Structures are given as C-alpha cells and as structure tokens.
Amino acid sequence: MIQKIRTRFPGALIILFVVMILAGITENSKGIFIPGFKEYFIIGDKEISYMIMGTSLTYMIANFLGGYLCERLGQKLVLTLGVIILILSLVMMSISQSFLAFAIWIGINSAGLGFAGIAGNTLLPVIVLSFQSLAMNLMHFFYGFGSTIGQRSFGFFLDKGISWRRLYLIVAVAIGILFL
What's the whole-model pTM score? Predict the structure, then answer.
C-alpha cells in the first residue's frame, strides 16, 4: 500500500512550498545582479562585500528573533510578517536611487527571508501529520529549486534587457499574489 504525506491543511503546505521557491529565487539572485549593482550605483567590490555581510548579519539576527517571535506570537504571524517584509523590501529595492538605501533595503529583505524561513521550518511539523522528514526535505528541495530557476531565468531576462529593478518588482508582485 502506498502511503502519502498527510496534513491538516494541504493548502498551507502548498503555500509553504511556493514561499520556499520564491525565497530561493529572491535570496540567490544577488550574485547575478552584482554587475548591475556596481554599474548603476558606481561602486566597487568593497561596497558589495559590505552589503553582502550586512545581508548575512540581518538574516542571522532575523532567524534568532524569528524563533523567539514564533514562540511568543505563533508561526503564522511570523510567516505573514516575513512575507510582508519581503514584498515591501523588494519594491523598495527596485526603486532605490542610492546605494545606501538599496543596501539597507536588501538587508531588510534578508530579515524577511529569515522570518519566513524560521516560521516555515517550525510550522511544517505542526501541519504535517505523517512523513514529516519527507515534507521538510521537500520544502528545502523547493528552496533549492527556486534558487536554480531564479538564477537561470534572471540571467536569461538580463540578457534580454530586462533590468534587475524590474525583476525584483516582478518577484514582489508574485509574492503579493501568493499572499492574497
């Protein structure tokens, strides 16, 4: 007899998987956009390294804080907060005119990714009744899948002349549609 993943809320599980795809797309797009950042903002490698360090730092802080907030407020609220932060920061990144503003917003974007990630990782065992480890592996597979298709498709779109600003806006709209 074939056994299946049983869940209390199949829609929530699908949303978690799609959020992980979009998180992978968002988080791993920085590298492919770096030449565009350097050209637009007229900055060097040193500034890029500070930006990437800042995103790593805000991601770590958000994971720590997100775990605390999950305990106090619940995973659903932290996931919602993470998604709202993602949408807002992607929009603001797409319209930032200075590197400082952009670097702040990309750091805030990493905080949104941290909140969404920690909420998803702690919410999944609550909503999945059987095969929890398989469901967790699938959730992280979808993150990797999003990372792969994001980098490939963004490279294709950049080659076709679509700017990194527009691509960030498109991802914000996609996350917004999911959030509805």
Answer: 0.91
